Amino acid sequence: MPDAAPRLKGLVEQMVGAPLPLRIRAWDGSEAGPPTAPTLVVRNRRALRRLLWKPGELGLARAWVAGDLDIDGDLYTALDLLAGIVWERGEDARTLAQALRDPEVRSAVRGLLRLAGPPLPPAPPREEARRPRRHLHTRSTDRRAISHHYDVGNDFYEIVLGPSMVYSCAYWPAPDSTLETAQRDKLELVCRKLALKPGQRLLDVGCGWGSLAIHAAREHGATVVGVTLSQEQAAYARKRVADEGLTDKAEIRVQDYRDVRDGPYDAISSIGMAEHVGAERYLEYATDLHRLLRPGGRLLNHQIARRPQRDESRYEVDAFIDSYVFPDGELQPIGMTVTQLERAGFEVRDVESIREHYALTLRRWVANLEADWGRATQLTGPGRARVWRLYMAASALAFEHNRIGVNQVLAVKTPESGMSGMPLRARTWN
User: What residues does the Polyketide synthase-like methyltransferase domain cover (predicted)?
Assistant: First the structure.
């Protein structure tokens, strides 16, 4: 009689010391667990070997990406429930070592090893990037990291992002608004915060597929230079600019922001790009942007932030994100971002948290992906599509639960006269 699921349920509960909140369906067809809960589908024994070899986030991610694990039921509910039984990120080795001192845990591990069977360990899925020992953030490593994430295929991104082709947090007038409306409102918000006027020069750092460059040129009469490290993004953005008849107003370059030399600019936007800069390079990033602005020019820095830790020296990047999504990416608390911008010479004038907006945005992206799943897997492969579904759904929950946030920081290169040019009443953005 098939019994893998009840055996697995019992061993996991013995290990974690609590009831398993998910239902399990095992490779032999057996099921166990709460009948109304989402079902964790364990397709083969290899899934157990992945989790035993990397007991935590990375092992779970490898099993998911390879298709060894799946969820039958609401993905968001399942991820919330799983979060309570996965080893704490950044604490895997120490937490497991402490847990193994318990005879019950050791007995459960032995039982799981017998159930998993040989061999150990399975090779990581091919979608996993090679992780450097440390985050170098040289021009070459940044270029490779950007290519891993953004050169997946423009057709795939069209499915996920929709017609707006904006890959950053939208700005929602209401939860039931369309994604396209919310993204247009975000682009307009950025332009108003920068107080763009006809003829002014805007540098868009990390310009993506050109949406902000087009909006700023078409709606505000700005002359825009957009820079990206992604060849695919640049080709797509250039075609969009040409189709809009804006080639005299918007230029798209494949260029590192550190190599831009044609300042000064009246304004700089950096939307969802600074997460790739790295903590060690952040002051250099801020200093370079300060150098490129004219006195009185404004910077709008839109960036995801993590929560600060009591001991920052022990902070470790998310293993799944670093291996499968944003190799070499780093988040830092908003306080560190503001400090580094001011160290570079900026005067920070406004910080707006739009955390809930990103949760709404991510849920729409997941819905877009799921609605065209068959074509998405044809375009990029099932493993890569599974990476994206997991990463976006988990990120939506992280924003909803206040584990991470996103902020727009408006800063000014204030002239020696001290006249910032900002309105007396904040957030009128005139």
Answer: 156-389
Burial level of 298, CB count in 10 A (0-12/13-18/19+)? buried
Question: What is the C-alpha to C-alpha distance for residues 369 and 366, in angstroms, rounded to an integer?
Answer: 5
E strand or H helix at 71: strand 69-72
Domains and CATH numbers, the chain: 4-116 (3.30.1050), 139-308+315-412 (3.40.50.150)
pTM for the model: 0.92
Q: Is 264 helix (H, G, I), strand (E, B) or coil?
A: coil
Query: Pick from 51, 40, 41: which is nearest to 92 by CA?
Result: 51
Which tokens go with 20? 């398993």
Long-range contacts of 376-382 (CB under 8 A, 24+ apart): 376/156, 376/159, 376/160, 379/153, 379/155, 379/156, 379/159, 380/152, 380/153, 380/156, 381/127, 382/67
Q: What length does the chain have?
A: 430
What are 318-334's pLDDT values in tens digits? 788 888 887 777 899 99
174-200 residue pLDDT tens: 999 999 999 999 999 999 999 999 999
What confidence tens digit (pLDDT) does each residue in 364-422 have?
Answer: 999 999 999 999 999 999 999 999 999 999 999 999 999 999 999 999 999 999 999 98
Q: Which helix (H) or strand (E) holds 184?
A: helix 179-193
Angle formed by the axes of helices 179-193 and 211-220, to 10°?
60
Q: Is the pLDDT of residue 154 over 60?
A: yes
